[in-house]
Amino acid sequence: MRIIAKNKKAYFNYQLLERLEVGIVLTGSEIKSIRLGNVSLQDSYITFTNNEAYIINMNINTYKFSTSYVVDPLRKRKLLLNTREIKKIKQEQKQKNLTVVPTMIYLNNKNRAKLEITLARGKKNYDKRETIKSRDAVRQIKK
Description:
Layout (H helix, E strand, L loop, with lengths): L1 E5 L1 H6 E11 L3 H8 L3 E2 L4 E5 L2 E5 L2 E2 L16 E4 L2 H13 L3 E9 L5 E10 L2 H18 L1
Antiparallel strand pairs: 1-8, 2-7, 2-9, 3-6, 4-5, 5-7, 8-9
């Protein structure tokens, strides 16, 4: 497993609860660009429409050597989930007031791009300050 990109803001802004591995529908030039590491998960989020999951605002830069069909880097991409999984996620999202956040994109052993999505609860400002304090304390101890 080779990690390509992480959503560091998600780890800071949310309390991560349950993780899921999801496939992404990509074109040929997009997967080549991902393998080169030209992808960003910042400000991306997941929506559900017509019992299908989509990731929006995931930035995959265009592949430099692509000669045909240029794809929009910020286009809406379909996620590969079972309907059972989508229903479960939507139900937990509504009942427990959670959000679905993309946390990491990586290549698995078969060289396929996978996205890790997480059910998360938003942190309050005092929780964020607490994590900063604990991080600084650990840094001071290591010094």
